[in-house]
Request: fold
Amino acid sequence: MRVLACDGIHEDGLALFRNAGWTVEVSEPIKDAAKLAAKLEGFDAVLVRSATLVSAESLAKAGALKVIGRAGAGVDTIDVEAATARGIAVMNAPDGNTLAAAEHAISLLFALARHVPRADAGMKAGEWPKAGLTGFELEGKKLGVIGLGRIGATVARKAQGIGMEVAAHDPFLPASAAGKGSVPLMALDELLAWADVITLHIPRTKETTNLLNEARLRTMKKGAFLVNAARGGLVDEDALLKLLDEGHLGGAALDTFVTEPLPKDSPLRGNPKLILTPHLGASTGEAQQAVSTILARQIIDFVATGAVAGC
Ligand code: MLT
Reply:
């Protein structure tokens, strides 16, 4: 059996493949669909993170391919319909990076509240940039969590631990779930108008693309903050820039973008009210070790016995 590991898959998972007798080939991200199609010929499995996009075109010659493994939570970078039509299973490892993603969202909250990146940049530029960097305290502030799945619920629990008042909107939870957990559920517009800070933890789908469009961003409190460490495209980036420039929003932290890597000339890069990180949510040693080993076990098992997990 042969597996192609793109996008920097943790070595511990690759070792499991080798121990099971598989041949492992490691590759840089393959962005070009035609190149990926040519490369996939003869492989039984391919592993990706968020850089290599597995489109229908890239599967054109993948006659031997049995499994596409996403070493992470979402499968939005894979054309699942095209894979299914070709009889290729798609697996992810949604449990492995929950803590990493939640902790990154919390770190962005603190960074926004205390201007950490601007303070650091000023110090390294030889300044003592104390004036103008007065922040705010998170304790007592209202955090609106959009998406109360694994990551959103972990963010909610951690935010409650630092004394934030937390409420959530979850498009996938039935209304009957309201009042059952420790996090009150609200309608989206109600949550947006209530929160001092909004944090997103939902997948990108047809329904959630541009969920926070200009009209919705305008319903946020004046001076409110936004964190998106979930998926690019959930927030309309142009509208966000407009509302930051107008002073309607106090600031935002983005870890995910409509186009990744973020183009060098993106106007997002020049906005002082924005904190930007390069899709680092899942990038801890612990999370990468976990997702690669979970995925390797699932795939080895699937190919040997047909057992299906993480689909
Ligand atoms: C995920 O889907 O869990 C992450 O976006 C994957 C990653 O960046 O490795």
